[in-house]
Specification:
Layout lengths: L1 H22 L1 E6 L8 E2 L5 E2 L1 H13 L2 E6 L5 H7 L4 E2 L7 H4 L2 E3 L12 E6 L14 E5 L3 H13 L2 E5 L2 H9 L5 E5 H9 L4 E6 L12 E3 L4 H14 L2 H10 L2
Helix pairs in contact: 2-8, 2-9
Length: 250
Amino acid sequence: MKKIILGLLLLLTLNLASCETKQNTITVLTSSGYEPYEMIDTDGNLTGFDIDLMNALADELAIEIEWKDVAFEGIIASLQSGQAEIAIAGISPTEDRKENIDFSEIYYNSDVGLTNFLVFKSDQAIESLNDLSGLVVGAQLGTVQATLLESIHEEYNFIVDLRNTNTQIVEEIKADRIDVLVVEKVISDSILASNNELKAVGFESHLDDYSGNAIAFSKGSPYVEQFNSALQTLRDNGTLDELINKWFNT
């Protein structure tokens, strides 16, 4: 009888431990292919600034993370539908997005001068948006850059071609199927660092009003306050600056 009771107690303890682990495990959405924020390394693992930052925040909060790599355009809908509660993917906290999801404080602002850049082959004579007439211009689906292109393509007479990742668009530019990619400055810097045949030109737009990146949460999430507190701790102890220097060489 004692063995049976001890066995039941052990089983109960294991079940409670399992439940506790589950409760402390949070699904976090990201979208790889957005260097240097999030990408896949040669071993098939997620890496990048956002990945390191979220892992550091998880350590600070003593929680476990289950990463889910998804298409960027589906992140907000997934947060709204309850498929996940948190996302980090170089997301700009625009007013439109704030209507549907919540955001942390800004954790990184890459805005130094012009915010967005046109990336194209070096033999192209492009200096501004006025030179895009008749060209095919791409951006990542679901991004503020994609929204921008949809709003100005008629004014500047270019064709919009949206893809799941910037990496896909870069390959299409090399193959002469897309002429130009529109991305934020740090992304263009990363692309040029590994593609000598490309160049970039900055331009002004209303996107300059939406600088900075924040962690996204489902509406009303109790995690917002916790992550803001953890972010402040990482600022105070120098961890955030270390990660910025590691990934952006500032």
